[in-house]
Specification:
Low-confidence stretches: none
Radius of gyration: 23 Å
Mean pLDDT: 93
CATH class of the largest domain: Alpha Beta
Number of helices: 9
Length: about 400
């Protein structure tokens, strides 16, 4: 499915980019900008919008063809700041301006005022060019600590939920240590993770394992596999094996379609750790078999990296609590019209926060901490969760 999203994204990027570039070029000409200035804008727009995605695509194809051990990475501090961040800024300005420029074009058909149209276009593009980085800088590094209370009993079983740390040059050890300290201060009974401890490449596998090992709770830390656990090497099995080994070294269990049982206040809590992500989606039949084993639990919990509609249909009324991750709250949520829209809605309706799937089944999706591809979150602050299940 993600290949379809990427393909559609490329089509929209190129079509929308050329439309906006043409309209801004016309507007600059209309208000009297010199031909040299207009030409400079046209080349700059091409560079900002298209160099980074095309470079990634070409580099990945070459790496696969030559049998490289790792996929090329554009997530380092220099490449990200020189190419990734400018691309994201230009892309967001383009996407957010597009519906307004179309509306201005429609209005121009009835009100033939070329200079008004030019001023309107430049005001819209200029407003988004300022607002977008300002919003990103304002929320930079924001991670919410959210508390959730479930059940009506008097004996709380405290769960700390962390996911999508995606440790790298940007979500570095200092950031990870701060997050760990916040969770440890809540004195959880158990830590449950939705995975994605690394971003890409093997450089931060050991650091991610060490970070997970510093999480403190009465019963320990348990995690599922995320997508990015497969991205250290082109050989996905090697990638997962090294991440799991790092976790094991530090006393953290990375579980693959396994159940764990915990006792609390005379009740038996069953937790299913499901392998469900872009790389591996456990089929419906094995999921049903695993869920049947939870039937004898007094309280049933599902931990998964991704949580989409097909999985929701399988687990509805079969578990009491679903803990999901992966979406980053959208990570990049552009303005469409007047409001920010979470693009993750194309994949799932469970994007960020708490949902009631049924009277029995509660879903909590954490927005995570780190980033993918480009080290920026836009209108999507991170989160970690504390869940008190009152038994």
């Amino acid at each position: 499915m993600w290949l379809i999203f990427v393909a559609v994204g490329f089509v929209l990027l190129f079509a929308g980019g050329f439309y906006v570039r043409r309209r801004v070029t016309q507007a600059l000409t209309e208000i009297g900008v010199s031909p040299r200035g207009v030409k400079l804008f046209r080349w700059a727009a091409l560079w900002f919008l298209y160099f980074f995605p095309v470079a990634i695509l070409v580099a990945v194809i070459i790496a696969i063809l030559v049998g490289a051990e790792q996929l090329p990475r554009f997530e380092g501090p220099i490449l990200s700041r020189l190419f990734g961040v400018p691309f994201l800024w230009a892309m967001l300005v383009m996407v957010q301006s597009l519906p307004w420029l179309i509306a201005i074009d429609v209005a121009h058909r009835f009100v033939k005022k070329p200079r008004w149209r030019a001023i309107g276009i430049l005001l819209v593009v200029g407003a988004f060019a300022i607002y977008t980085p300002a919003r990103i800088l304002w929320e930079h590094g924001e991670v919410r600590l959210r508390h959730h209370a479930l059940g009506t009993g008097s004996e709380p079983f405290r769960i700390a939920v962390i996911a999508d740390l995606q440790q790298d040059a940007f979500t570095d050890q200092d950031t990870a240590n701060t997050i760990v300290a916040r969770l440890n201060a809540e004195h959880p009974d158990v830590v449950l993770s939705g995975g994605d401890w690394i971003n890409s490449g093997p450089d931060y596998i050991a650091a991610a394992g060490a970070t997970a090992g510093t999480l403190k709770s009465r019963l320990g830390t348990f995690t599922v596999r995320g997508d990015h656990e497969h991205f250290a090497y082109i050989d996905r099995h090697r990638s997962v094996a090294e991440v799991e080994a790092a976790m094991t070294t530090h006393g953290v269990a990375m579980l693959n379609n396994e159940l764990r049982w915990f006792d609390h206040a005379g009740k038996r809590i069953g937790v299913l750790f499901l392998n469900y992500n872009y790389i591996t989606r456990t089929p419906a039949v094995p999921v049903a078999a695993l869920l049947s084993q939870l039937a004898r639990a007094d309280y049933a919990i599902l931990v998964t990296h991704q949580f989409d509609a097909p999985l929701a249909a399988l687990v509805k009324d079969k578990v009491d609590l679903v803990l999901g991750a992966h979406t980053h709250g959208g990570q990049v949520n552009p303005v469409v019209g007047l409001f920010h829209v979470r693009l993750a809605r194309l994949e799932t309706t469970h994007i960020d926060g708490r949902y009631q799937l049924s009277p029995r089944t509660t879903v909590i999706v954490t927005a995570g901490i780190g980033t993918s591809i480009i080290p920026v979150r836009y209108a999507s602050p991170g989160s970690i969760e504390i869940v008190d299940v009152n038994l």
